[in-house]
Amino acid sequence: MQLKDRLREIRQKRGATLLQVAEAVKLSVSYLSDLERGRAKPSLDTLERLAEFYEMSVADLVSGIEGWGTHSVEGLAPGIITLLEKKEIDERTAQDLNRIELRGKRPQTEEEWRILYQNLQFIMRSYLKEDETKEE
């Protein structure tokens, strides 16, 4: 089960509408709807509010959710998935790259992600060299 399914299931079992939950936890109906559709990812604060509303712990709220505490390929941008499949990057790097937005935009193609990754590698190597020379 995915988080979106779990949130909808709990709400429906409790007989609550999105509007009722939204008013109680002080979040918008559209945001809660996005959570239940998998279009948004909740913060810990949001999970805590929902758990309190449903009178359960956060652990119980997320109980049975696939990959909870782990990262899945499912949420990665397509270009990143291709780089991962080609073993050009590892899973941790894929997750790190997937968090990047540049002025509200993200690279779209495999090549754009590759160029971004290569530039970040160059910057990090330069940064590490500067640190080494400062220590000497």
Structural class: mainly alpha
Distance from first to last alpha carbon: 54 Å
User: Percent of residues in beta strands?
Assistant: under 5%
* Extended strand count: 0
Q: Choose one word for the global shape.
A: elongated
- Give the low-confidence spans: none
The protein's oligomeric status is: single chain
Q: Describe the biggest sheet?
A: none
Spell out the helices and strands N to C. Answer: HHHHHHHH
Q: Can you give the helix content as a percent range?
A: 55-70%
Rg calc = 20 Å
Number of domains: 2
Average pLDDT across residues?
A: 86
Query: If helices are DSSP runs of H or I spanning 4 or more residues, what is the number of helices?
Result: 8
Task: Walk me through this protein's architecture.
The chain has 136 residues and is an all-alpha fold. The protein has 2 domains: 59 residues, Orthogonal Bundle (434 Repressor (Amino-terminal Domain)); 63 residues. 62% of the residues lie in helices and 0% in strands. Helix 6 crosses helix 8. The termini are far apart.
Could you give the topology of this structure?
Elements: H1 3-13, H2 18-25, H3 29-37, H4 44-53, H5 58-61, H6 78-85, H7 91-98, H8 110-135
Helix pairs in contact: 6-7, 6-8
Describe the structure using short key phrases.
136 residues; mainly alpha; 434 Repressor (Amino-terminal Domain); 2 domains; 8 helices; elongated
Summarize this structure briefly:
With 136 residues, this protein is mainly alpha-helical. 62% of the residues lie in helices and 0% in strands. It is built from 8 helices and no strands.
